[in-house]
Amino acid sequence: MASPGRAAPGGVPADRSAELRAELAQPLALLEQAEADAQSVRERAGTAAAARLQEAEILAEELVAEAREEAPRARESAAERSLRAAEAEATDLLADAEREAAAVHDRAGGRMPALTERALALVREDITAEPKPDITAQPKPPPSPEAGS
Question: pTM for the full model?
Protein backbone atom coordinates (compact mmCIF):
# COMPACT_ATOMS: atom_id res chain seq x y z
CA MET A 1 0.00 0.00 0.00
CA ALA A 2 1.15 3.35 -0.81
CA SER A 3 1.46 6.22 1.52
CA PRO A 4 -1.13 8.88 1.28
CA GLY A 5 1.22 11.42 0.01
CA ARG A 6 1.24 15.07 0.46
CA ALA A 7 -1.83 16.93 1.56
CA ALA A 8 -3.82 18.73 -1.14
CA PRO A 9 -3.84 22.47 -1.14
CA GLY A 10 -6.66 23.91 0.88
CA GLY A 11 -9.76 25.23 -0.87
CA VAL A 12 -13.46 25.39 -0.92
CA PRO A 13 -15.12 22.22 -1.88
CA ALA A 14 -17.14 22.47 -5.15
CA ASP A 15 -20.97 22.51 -4.86
CA ARG A 16 -21.98 20.18 -7.66
CA SER A 17 -25.70 20.42 -6.84
CA ALA A 18 -25.74 24.17 -7.30
CA GLU A 19 -23.86 23.84 -10.58
CA LEU A 20 -26.38 21.28 -11.87
CA ARG A 21 -29.33 23.43 -10.78
CA ALA A 22 -27.85 26.45 -12.54
CA GLU A 23 -27.16 24.40 -15.64
CA LEU A 24 -30.72 22.94 -15.75
CA ALA A 25 -32.57 26.11 -14.74
CA GLN A 26 -32.94 27.44 -18.30
CA PRO A 27 -34.08 24.13 -19.90
CA LEU A 28 -36.52 23.54 -17.03
CA ALA A 29 -37.89 27.06 -17.40
CA LEU A 30 -38.36 26.44 -21.14
CA LEU A 31 -40.11 23.14 -20.35
CA GLU A 32 -42.44 24.86 -17.87
CA GLN A 33 -43.24 27.53 -20.49
CA ALA A 34 -43.95 24.81 -23.09
CA GLU A 35 -46.29 23.07 -20.64
CA ALA A 36 -48.11 26.35 -19.95
CA ASP A 37 -48.39 27.01 -23.71
CA ALA A 38 -49.72 23.49 -24.28
CA GLN A 39 -52.30 23.94 -21.52
CA SER A 40 -53.38 27.24 -23.07
CA VAL A 41 -53.70 25.60 -26.51
CA ARG A 42 -55.77 22.76 -25.01
CA GLU A 43 -58.09 25.23 -23.29
CA ARG A 44 -58.57 27.27 -26.49
CA ALA A 45 -59.14 24.07 -28.47
CA GLY A 46 -61.71 22.89 -25.91
CA THR A 47 -63.52 26.24 -26.10
CA ALA A 48 -63.46 26.21 -29.91
CA ALA A 49 -64.70 22.60 -29.98
CA ALA A 50 -67.57 23.42 -27.60
CA ALA A 51 -68.54 26.41 -29.75
CA ARG A 52 -68.46 24.32 -32.93
CA LEU A 53 -70.49 21.58 -31.27
CA GLN A 54 -73.10 24.12 -30.21
CA GLU A 55 -73.20 25.56 -33.75
CA ALA A 56 -73.58 22.05 -35.16
CA GLU A 57 -76.45 21.28 -32.78
CA ILE A 58 -78.22 24.51 -33.77
CA LEU A 59 -77.72 23.72 -37.47
CA ALA A 60 -79.00 20.17 -36.94
CA GLU A 61 -82.11 21.46 -35.18
CA GLU A 62 -82.73 23.90 -38.05
CA LEU A 63 -82.32 21.12 -40.62
CA VAL A 64 -84.72 18.85 -38.73
CA ALA A 65 -87.28 21.67 -38.49
CA GLU A 66 -86.98 22.37 -42.23
CA ALA A 67 -87.34 18.66 -43.01
CA ARG A 68 -90.46 18.44 -40.85
CA GLU A 69 -91.94 21.44 -42.67
CA GLU A 70 -91.04 19.96 -46.05
CA ALA A 71 -92.25 16.41 -45.27
CA PRO A 72 -95.98 17.00 -46.00
CA ARG A 73 -95.14 18.63 -49.34
CA ALA A 74 -92.78 15.78 -50.20
CA ARG A 75 -95.44 13.17 -49.30
CA GLU A 76 -98.03 15.05 -51.36
CA SER A 77 -95.66 15.26 -54.31
CA ALA A 78 -94.85 11.55 -54.07
CA ALA A 79 -98.55 10.66 -53.83
CA GLU A 80 -99.28 12.83 -56.86
CA ARG A 81 -96.53 11.13 -58.88
CA SER A 82 -97.87 7.72 -57.84
CA LEU A 83 -101.41 8.71 -58.79
CA ARG A 84 -100.28 9.95 -62.21
CA ALA A 85 -98.34 6.73 -62.79
CA ALA A 86 -101.38 4.64 -61.76
CA GLU A 87 -103.65 6.68 -64.05
CA ALA A 88 -101.23 6.24 -66.96
CA GLU A 89 -101.08 2.50 -66.30
CA ALA A 90 -104.88 2.30 -66.12
CA THR A 91 -105.16 4.19 -69.41
CA ASP A 92 -102.70 1.79 -71.04
CA LEU A 93 -104.56 -1.24 -69.65
CA LEU A 94 -107.90 0.13 -70.87
CA ALA A 95 -106.47 0.75 -74.35
CA ASP A 96 -105.06 -2.80 -74.42
CA ALA A 97 -108.43 -4.21 -73.30
CA GLU A 98 -110.28 -2.22 -75.97
CA ARG A 99 -107.89 -3.51 -78.66
CA GLU A 100 -108.34 -7.07 -77.42
CA ALA A 101 -112.15 -6.69 -77.34
CA ALA A 102 -112.10 -5.34 -80.90
CA ALA A 103 -110.00 -8.31 -82.02
CA VAL A 104 -112.42 -10.75 -80.34
CA HIS A 105 -115.36 -8.92 -81.95
CA ASP A 106 -113.69 -9.16 -85.37
CA ARG A 107 -112.98 -12.88 -84.93
CA ALA A 108 -116.54 -13.51 -83.76
CA GLY A 109 -117.91 -11.50 -86.67
CA GLY A 110 -115.90 -13.61 -89.10
CA ARG A 111 -117.14 -16.86 -87.58
CA MET A 112 -120.76 -15.80 -87.13
CA PRO A 113 -122.09 -16.57 -90.65
CA ALA A 114 -120.72 -20.14 -90.56
CA LEU A 115 -122.05 -20.75 -87.02
CA THR A 116 -125.46 -19.26 -87.95
CA GLU A 117 -125.65 -21.46 -91.06
CA ARG A 118 -124.76 -24.55 -89.04
CA ALA A 119 -127.35 -23.74 -86.35
CA LEU A 120 -130.04 -23.22 -89.02
CA ALA A 121 -129.11 -26.53 -90.66
CA LEU A 122 -129.44 -28.34 -87.33
CA VAL A 123 -132.83 -26.73 -86.67
CA ARG A 124 -134.08 -27.60 -90.17
CA GLU A 125 -132.86 -31.15 -89.77
CA ASP A 126 -134.62 -31.43 -86.42
CA ILE A 127 -137.88 -30.05 -87.82
CA THR A 128 -137.94 -32.32 -90.85
CA ALA A 129 -136.75 -35.47 -89.08
CA GLU A 130 -139.21 -38.17 -88.05
CA PRO A 131 -139.76 -38.54 -84.34
CA LYS A 132 -137.65 -41.28 -82.84
CA PRO A 133 -139.02 -43.55 -80.18
CA ASP A 134 -137.81 -42.88 -76.70
CA ILE A 135 -136.07 -46.06 -75.68
CA THR A 136 -135.35 -44.79 -72.21
CA ALA A 137 -139.02 -44.26 -71.34
CA GLN A 138 -140.70 -46.94 -69.23
CA PRO A 139 -144.08 -48.23 -70.35
CA LYS A 140 -146.96 -46.99 -68.20
CA PRO A 141 -148.65 -49.67 -66.16
CA PRO A 142 -152.37 -50.15 -66.78
CA PRO A 143 -154.60 -48.28 -64.32
CA SER A 144 -155.50 -50.29 -61.27
CA PRO A 145 -159.18 -51.13 -60.73
CA GLU A 146 -159.19 -49.55 -57.33
CA ALA A 147 -158.03 -46.20 -58.67
CA GLY A 148 -160.89 -45.88 -61.15
CA SER A 149 -163.98 -46.06 -58.91
Answer: 0.40
